[in-house]
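Standup notes
- DV: blocked on the single-chain target, sequence here:
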Amino acid sequence: MKIIITITFLLAVISGCSIQQIAIRSMGGLMENGFIVLNEESDLDIAEKSAASNLKLLEAMIKSDPENEKLLRLATMGYSSYALGFVEDDSPERARNLYLRSKNFGMQLLNKNKAFVTATSGDLENFNDALQTFSKEDIPALFWTGIGWGSYVSLSLTEPEALADLPKVEAIMKYVAEKDSSYFYGGAHFFLGALYGSRPKVLGGNPDEAKKHFEKCLHINGGKFLMSYVYYARTYAVQIQDQNLFEELLTKVDEASIDILPEARLSNAIAKKKAEKLRNQLNDLF
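- DV (later): unblocked, structure below
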């Protein structure tokens, strides 16, 4: 036992970590597995309660080990996913605050890149140059930060400062689409499709580009990530006022099994719930 304690102490000294940090880092894999299991859950009540508990545990762990990249990435992903899945439809202002948390955790990760830190307050050209200093290994951090940041902006349309950040969020997602278009079921194309499809042309909307990105997203995930259809209907179909396409896309969600993509069973269950709510708004949308 003395030998074990001595070795642990020496490891802590050598690595510059406290015993507490070593314990937390040993739990990082467990937390990651927890999110994998959560994404496989089909019961929305169980998932919502579990997600909230996991997020607070993550924050507690980050407080003790603020440089832990795995935990920061999980928090960035977790808060965006929780806000989208369980909060945004009923409480946009609360979701807005959760998206901001996601963005802030993500920026802690991305700001480890000194070129990026400088570029965030600069012009778009410098920002794009800074993105080129990231590698493919940084794609998850970039993607989930972009999701949190972009979703925060979309719920802050009355704030000019937030809206001014939108071109940088768009740049992040274009970079992700270029470097790893398949990441998270074609998630960058999903985001760009929703971005171009949710705004009128005078505010930067582009229906043709929206359609291209949604079709690329569906090609990548084989139509198995059902949220793709929901946002295709919610943004593009509504923007061009194509009710037949709107209903066709939602019908695909209705008829698909949530088990079509077992590792994203939770997302598909949420997509079905969102599709039902969106269908109930048909008369207001068309």
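- Follow-up: The mean pLDDT is 90.
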